[in-house]
Every structure is written in C-alpha cells, then in structure tokens.
Amino acid sequence: MIHKSSYVDEIVQIGEGTKIWHFCHIMNFSVIGRNCVIGQNCVIGPNATIGHNCKIQNNVSVYSGVTLDDDVFVGPSVVFTNVINPRAFIEKKSEFKETIVHRGATLGANSTIVCGVIIGEYAFIAAGAVVTKDVAPFTLVAGNPARVVRKINMSGPDNNGGC
Asked: Is there a domain that residue 156 lies in?
C-alpha cells in the first residue's frame, strides 16, 4: 500500500505487506523489507536499508548509509545525521558515515542518532536522547549525551523501572 500523495523513485525494493503513508518519498537504491509501516512525511534514502517488520513513525528521514535491521521501531521525529561536523558552505557528501541499528531496537520520539554509531540488538533509546556513541545490546540509554540507565530484556523497560 502506497498512499497516492507519496512518491517512490524507480529503482527501489519494497517488500510485500509494507505500508507507506501520506507525503513520503522513497529514493532510488533504497530497500524496504516486508510488513513495514512508513509513517507520514518520511524520506527514505537514497541507499538506505530497512529490514522486515520495521515501524517508522511520522517525520523521519532515513539517510544514505543508515541500516535498520528487522523489527526496529523509530519514533516520531527521530533524527539521523550523516556527517559529524556539517557546514552549509562546504560539501561533505564524501564524509557520510554508516549507522547501524540492530534487530529489535527502539528509538524514542525526538531522539538524535549521530552518524557512525552502532545501536545493539533490543537497545532502547529514550525519547529526546542524543546518541553520540555505540549503544550495547539490551541497554536503555537517555539524556544528552545519551548515558546508560540500565540493562533491559527483549520486552524493554517496564513501567515500574525494572526489566
């Protein structure tokens, strides 16, 4: 399902059962797996890879060099950067760094993921966190810069502060 207001370039792969909602742009050489949901006003690519069963909420741009493994949740308005030190007046496309978000990770609303980091399996990034370093698997991080709060399990943190 691709909403009629969205634009999909010619050279993309979109898996069966994926839904792309209003005002999205899927750019060339991007791959989106099966049974994904791409929320409103998202831009994917070019050259981005999204695994199966991913949920990307509204207002997210997944840039070139970003890889989301299977079962990743990306909250609304999450920001992925692609250059460490961007400048408007200097071309930096040759400096893009790869960012990998491993299986089952959750990226909370309005979090920022600085390019070049690896987010481990089932890690949980709190809303508004700014991730500047790799995040270990099964770890909850929060703050600016993001710091380890505690270890968690596959279900994520519970509402009582435990695992």
From this structure: no
Q: What is the pTM of this model?
A: 0.93
CATH of the domain at 47: 2.160.10.10
In a domain, 141, yes or no: yes
Give the number of domains in the chain.
1
Strand order in the sheet with 73-74: 19-20, 37-38, 55-56, 73-74, 106-107, 124-125, 139-142, 147-151
* Sheet with strand 13-14: strands edge to edge: 13-14, 31-32, 49-50, 66-68, 99-101, 118-119
**163 residues of the chain, pLDDT tens digit each:** 889 999 999 999 999 999 999 999 999 999 999 999 999 999 999 999 999 999 999 999 998 999 999 999 999 999 999 888 888 898 887 788 999 999 999 999 999 999 999 999 999 999 999 999 999 999 999 999 999 999 999 887 876 655 5
Domain that holds residue 38: 7-151
